[in-house]
Structure formats: structure tokens, C-alpha cells
Amino acid sequence: VQLQASGGGLVQPGGSLRLSCKASGTNFSIWNMNWYRQAPGKQRELVAVITSRGSADYADSMKGRVTISRDNARRTGYLQMNSLKPEDTAVYYCSLAGQHWGRGTQVTVSS
């Protein structure tokens, strides 16, 4: 199983990014998919989860500013992030139910 996260980058405060996570080597549609993040010096934290049926839930830290979605036909999950803040700076990881992990994509929010 491989997960390839992409879409990170440098964005100004208040900006938006959409992260993608492409899965291969597995039937993506049966998995719950999670997005985590890890900021320097901090523990990895859960940002959002979407079940195999498409139900979504969000961490309080980003609720209202992020939307998780998935396209099973493309075997890809997404994290749309809006109104980004400097404290959102972190490496963002996608995971399939915490069992399979991608390498992460860096998000830096700075002016």
C-alpha cells in the first residue's frame, strides 16, 4: 500500500490550500481515511477523518476551516483548508485508518 500526499506549500495567512492523497495497492474505498499534522516540537494530531461511507469529522482546532472529501474512483482523498493561520504550519500526513501512512506534505503559513 502506498499513499502519496501532495499540495502543500507556502501560503500567506488567510490563504487556502488543497491537499491530495493518492492511494495505490489497496481497495481505497473500504478504508476510513485520516489527515494528521505534526508541527515542529509537537505531537502528531488528528485533523480530520472521513469514513468509507463518506461521513466526516474534524478536530476542534480546524473545524469550520477544513473540509475532508474523497473520490473513490480516483482513489484519492482531499483536505481543503481555508483561512489558514501561522499555527497551522506543520507536516500534513494522510493515513488509512492509522495503518498505512503517506510521507507527508509540508504546509507553511507565513507572510
Q: Could you explain how this protein is built, in words?
A:
This protein has strands at 2-6, 9-11, 17-24, 33-38, 45-50, 56-58, 66-71, 76-81, 90-96, 100-101, 105-109. It is globular. Strands 2, 4, 5, 6, 9, 10 and 11 form a seven-stranded mixed beta sheet that branches. Strands 1-3-8-7 form a four-stranded antiparallel beta sheet, with no helix packed on it. With 111 residues, the chain is mainly beta. The chain contains no helices and eleven strands.
Summarize the structure.
The protein is mainly beta and 111 residues long. 0% of the residues lie in helices and 51% in strands.
**How many strands appear in the DSSP assignment?**
11
Secondary-structure element series: EEEEEEEEEEE
Biggest beta sheet summary: 7 strands, mixed
Outline: globular
Strand content: over 45%
- Write down the Rg: 13 Å
- The separation of the N and C termini measures 37 Å
Which secondary-structure class do the elements indicate?
mainly beta
Q: Which stretches are poorly predicted, pLDDT < 50 over at least 5 residues?
A: none
Give the helix proportion (percent range): under 10%
Number of helices: 0
Overall pLDDT level: 96
Detail the topology: elements first, then pairings:
Blueprint: E1 2-6, E2 9-11, E3 17-24, E4 33-38, E5 45-50, E6 56-58, E7 66-71, E8 76-81, E9 90-96, E10 100-101, E11 105-109
Parallel strand pairs: 2-11
Antiparallel strand pairs: 1-3, 3-8, 4-5, 4-9, 5-6, 7-8, 9-10, 9-11
